[in-house]
Design brief:
The chain has eight helices and twelve strands. It is of the alpha/beta class and 281 residues long.
Amino acid sequence: MLACTYASHPALTLLCQCCVQGRPKGPEDKSSLKHVVESVSDAIGLEVQLAPDCIGNEVQAMVDKLQPGQVLLLENVRFHKQEERNDPEFAKQLASLAEVYVNDAFGTAHRAHASTQGVTAHLSPCVGGFLMQKELDYLMGAVQAPNRPFCAIVGGSKVSTKIGVLEQLLEKCDSLILGGAMIFTFFKAQGYAVGNSMVEEAQTGLAKQLLSKAAEKGVKLLLPTDVVVADQYAADAHTQIVSADQISEGWMVSFLRWRMSPRRLLAGNQNTIQQKSMIVA
């Protein structure tokens, strides 16, 4: 983000920003980066200061006082709704705090948010970090020259954000395991009822195409065979395990408990244990 992890050089003044702590709707204690300050400090071997926000006069004053070798961690940018909207003015305010942009957050680099895309219009140079390079080197090697059988595990809430990844992997993989909320779009494409689970209605046609493409290419596309459903999205909800094609109206998959179906976790071992290469996207 407006960050780098190379703070050990004494000549560097480092502004470190992180915006991957939860999905808050506004400022909240559990998503505050105050909980990771000590860990960040231990990881880089330097004392880390925490700013009270990620923009504003008080933050700017703290930035202006930074000395070579000092580190400032900005508060969670997702406390501002403008972050995920990639608001130009918000991005400009973020960028005003720094001179160089280093994105070392591989897991969020694909998002068109203010801290990952918007700031690049105001800073130069804009580069990837060492961790980003390491991730890309591994991914390129695994995908371009995999040891077979080659399996990919892909999760996510939306098919629409994974189209390119899924299409490319179908060209490379021997088997593809899907998880996350996007499976309900695939269930709907197969004619299954999905209750109150999240579905991208506009993408059911695409899901059908991907299922057909996998069959044509002989790729094993594996979806959960059963899921844990709940009657409400709450910790005290009533839950039950049902087959993927037996989700009743008024019920939804319980994300509090569900990651991959219980039976698929067991059966999946038989499908994946013989894979020689595996990536998780």
